[in-house]
Write a structure and sequence with these properties.
This is Cysteine methyltransferase. With 107 residues, the protein is mostly helical. It is 39% helix and 7% strand. The protein has a single domain, classed as Orthogonal Bundle (Arc Repressor Mutant, subunit A), CATH 1.10.10.10. The strands form 2 sheets. It has a two-stranded parallel sheet. Strands 3-4 form a two-stranded antiparallel ribbon. Helix 1 packs across helix 2 and helix 2 crosses helix 3. It starts with 7 loop residues before the first helix and ends with a helix. The structure holds a DNA duplex (13 and 13 nucleotides).
DNA sequence: AGGATGACGTGCA
DNA sequence: TTGCACGCCATCC
């Protein structure tokens, strides 16, 4: 993934990077912000690509509409994702973000 | 060039 | 209320 290859994925990364610490957002929210409301899956796919990009994307701050850490298993270390969230003040229980409404970051 | 896929979301039974 | 099935659109094979 080259920097000049600005694509949908890059836009996702940029938005995800805007998420402040201690806050989380959903794939659908990001997708809508990009104009493709129904392409939430693309956002998830993009996050998966964040693996091989030089850009640092707080993928751990992005969860699904239910506050579930659906993608944690996809990361190098799923447990680390939860630890990162808790380190930012977000309570995670059973792959689920507690007080999701409070930490949710709307567009 | 075409077909299959996916870290989701919403609707319906 | 919980669970199942369909749709979506960019990316990958």
């Amino acid at each position: 993934m080259k920097p000049e290859t600005y694509s949908f994925i890059m836009q996702v990364f940029d938005l995800a990077r805007l998420i402040p610490e201690g806050r989380v957002t959903t794939y659908g929210t990001i997708a809508r912000a990009l104009g493709s409301a129904k392409s939430a899956r693309l956002v998830g796919k993009a996050m998966n690509h964040s693996h091989g990009t030089i850009y640092k994307v707080p993928a751990h701050r992005v969860v699904n509409g239910s506050g579930l850490l659906t993608g944690k298993f996809h990361l190098t270390d799923p447990d680390q994702m939860q630890s990162l969230l808790e380190a930012e003040g977000i309570t995670v229980k059973d792959n689920q973000v507690q007080y999701f409404k409070k930490v949710f970051c709307p567009p």
